[in-house]
Amino acid sequence: MITVKNTLADVVRDYPQTIPFFNELHLDYCCGGGIPLEEAVKNTDLDAEKVVADLNEFIAAHSAKTGSQQESLERFKNLSIPDMLQDLEATHHVDERKYMAEIETDLNKILLVHFVHHGELLTRLHHLYGTLKTELEEHFAREERLVFPLMRSYPQPNLEVLTLIQNLEKDHSAAGDIIKEIESLTDHFTAPADACATFKRTYQLLEEFINDVFVHIFKENSIVFPEYAEKAPSQEELDRQVEVTLEQEAGSNSNTCGYCESENGEEKSPVLFECGNCGALYCNDCGETGCPSCGASFSHAHPLEYSGSSWNPNQD
């Protein structure tokens, strides 16, 4: 039974069939989905208790979870993280790029044709949409070329990847703010009475596009990123990674094992290893089972040899 204390994201995660319900009420379950229902309806004319009652009735009436969107979310939740990332790129990234190109063409047409009667509206919409399109295109590039490959390479998150993910979530919030402006400006995609077919089609495409973006952001914010973050080392281990990074930047850890402080390798081992995951330096004895800092295996380590005066990459 859903209560006013449940967050919108939790409801959609457990009951994907509720997406149309929240869309109809213009409640943000993706970027703003982390807040309870009672807070989500504040500053609206909705009554929290009535929304919850209607929501529970809706869930009961749609318990079969049928429909492509619901089935897609159910399937998505059962994927591995690498498969989730692949799915996001193959579906939302592809579909939304197509939407953006088509909407841009139509929006430019109606801006020109209807400028005399709706110039203020369409000029503002054109600007907001252009900003949203630019931010999403750059966001997709960061995901596809930087963050997603790192997530695949490091099944156990390190501090760098977690920070990059936090930045992606900030991108989502920024996109959500623009979308709210677009929804308000267009009266939730209600075309003017004198709108032509292209005008109406542009609004319809915008609504479909934004609904897809909502599901896209929800999948990342509420499913993929939390599940990936659960695999992160403990806070103590993350703090140690920060210490190692600071030591390296200060130059104090350039030729010593970070755990036994062996300076030339003669006391412990003629080889140091640099962890490719967190950057820690450790000798063979201190890292018998892998990196003492983050636990990454030797497959992520780069051996360094002592040449008599300094440690250098092993060329073998």
From TrEMBL:
Keywords: Cell cycle, Cell division, Cytoplasm, Iron, Metal-binding
Parts forming coiled coils: none
SUPFAM superfamilies: SP0561-like
BP-aspect Gene Ontology terms: cell division
Entry GO terms, CC: cytoplasm
Record has Glycosyltransferase as a keyword: no
Lineage: superkingdom: Bacteria
A GO molecular-function annotation: metal ion binding
Ranges annotated as spanning the membrane: none
Localisation per UniProt entry: Cytoplasm
Cross-referenced Pfam families: Hemerythrin, ScdA_N
Domain Hemerythrin-like: 91-227
Primary localization class, coarse: cytoplasm
Keyword Nucleus included in the entry's annotation: no
Name used for this protein in its record: Cell division protein
